[in-house]
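Explain the record.
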Amino acid sequence: MSEEAVSEPSYPPANTALVARFRTYHEAIEHALVILAMNLPYWHVYRSDCHEIYVEEARLGRVADELRAYKDEQAFWRPVDLDAGVANYPPSFYVPYVATVALALSFILQNAYAPGYSAAGRMDTIGLLSRQEWWRPITALFLHADLPHVLGNIAFGLWYGTLVNRSYDTWLGWSLVIASGILGNTLVALHHFPESHFSIGASTAVFGALGLLVAEGFAQRWRQRFSMQLGQLLIPMVAGGIILGWTGGFQDPQVDGLAHVAGFFSGIMLGLAAYFLRRKEAGVSK
């Protein structure tokens, strides 16, 4: 239960301590809701020039950490204007639609001009590392074996990609998804070299998106580590590993399970790197 004072003089009980001071009533209530979500009481004291939030002195450290984590989270959040017209959407809004069209057109060309089209763009270990055909980790993402293959990757890619973009800015999110696919393909090539190995499909990037989601979940729990045990901290990693094992197709000899693992691992690494870089740019301290 909370108690709010709206006029001076007003003082909280003696066993309380000041946890935050705000310029506006709206800011004070917004942060007070965080405290209520912790199932803890607070006292709102209105001064002539500010609003003060007090909590029980014994809970001060825990509440301060929670408010700091909330501030960190808000630093990366961007509100979505649901009333914006189509003309007002930023160019990044159209990225998933462009990617879907690109995958569909590539699949049509692949079937119309195979095998030359596929041979030129597929992931080829020897081509990449011996003949320096640098484009292969990229173009291989746009080639697929059959219609269920491309439709499955489009569906899961859009699903995971949408979730990624709720945590990252749209340009950054999709860039990281593609980068995780490229890095994953490269890692697989390095693993197989000097033996010959071929692969196609956007699933490396799709599982990279899953890795990015795991990285964001881990980062959120890391910000709240003051109240976390190690097991709780690793929950996103375990959950992501379960989904990878469930959907990775490791029992199918036609599926490149190693590429899925490499994409997943690349997504985690890139996601954690992006998290710490964004914190540094935002000037957020521990």
Observations:
- Residues 86-282 form a domain with the Rhomboid-like fold fold (CATH 1.20.1540.10).
- The radius of gyration is 25 Å.
